[in-house]
Amino acid sequence: MIEEKGILFILSGPSGVGKGTVRKSLFDKDTDLKYSISMTTRPPREGEVDGVDYFFKTKEEFEDMIENNKMIEYAHYVGNYYGTPKDYVQKQLDNGNDVFLEIEVQGALQVKENFPEGVFVFLIPPSLEELKDRIISRGTETEEKVRNRLAAAKEEIEMMDYYDYVVVNDQIDTAVQTVQSIVRSEHCKRERVAIQYKKALERDES
């Protein structure tokens, strides 16, 4: 019996590209993936459950975990910490589960430093014009904010060299199918399969 470890998949891309929409659609179709539960110091909102929606921690607990290198990535946002706990992700992978992390570009670069064996997928818009339309269609941004977000998005798109795969988010269903193909192909990679087979052969010989 070959024991296959899980793989950490990181979906990232510029703000406004539709990461959340693609992730939600992917999870509606693919129940084998485990979503990476984030950790935060903000108080739970009504109906939120610890260990389901977030892992809720005190500021002291979170900072202690940062100090002890227990976070794959973290950020400080509007007075609270948010991040991805290393032990939770590692436990899921050791149990053979694929873990899926949807995250901003800066967070993804932190993950690459702390967890380089992850598979990094970069979601891009069909064009910058399309990205601008998506940001404007949200209806929540002033003209200046739209300009700032587009400038930031252009800088983030230049980061795609750090990623293993690039997926164009033109049609949601097509983008989801492409991500599913990436998951399947990663499990068939020779180096992954070879390591597992060699371990099985060694057990068989002993």
From TrEMBL:
The lineage of its organism: Bacteria, Bacillati, Bacillota, Bacilli, Bacillales. The keyword ATP-binding applies. One of its GO terms (cellular component) is cytosol. Belongs to the guanylate kinase family. GO terms for molecular function: ATP binding; GMP kinase activity. Residues 6-184 form the Guanylate kinase-like domain. PROSITE patterns: GUANYLATE_KINASE_1, GUANYLATE_KINASE_2. InterPro entries: GK/Ca_channel_bsu, Guanylate_kin-like_dom, Guanylate_kinase, Guanylate_kinase_CS, P-loop_NTPase. It is found in: Cytoplasm. CDD domains: GMPK (cd00071). Gene3D superfamilies: Guanylate Kinase phosphate binding domain (3.30.63.10), P-loop containing nucleotide triphosphate hydrolases (3.40.50.300). Essential for recycling GMP and indirectly, cGMP. It is an enzyme of class 2 (transferase). PANTHER family: GUANYLATE KINASE, GUANYLATE KINASE-RELATED. Its EC number is 2.7.4.8. This is Guanylate kinase.
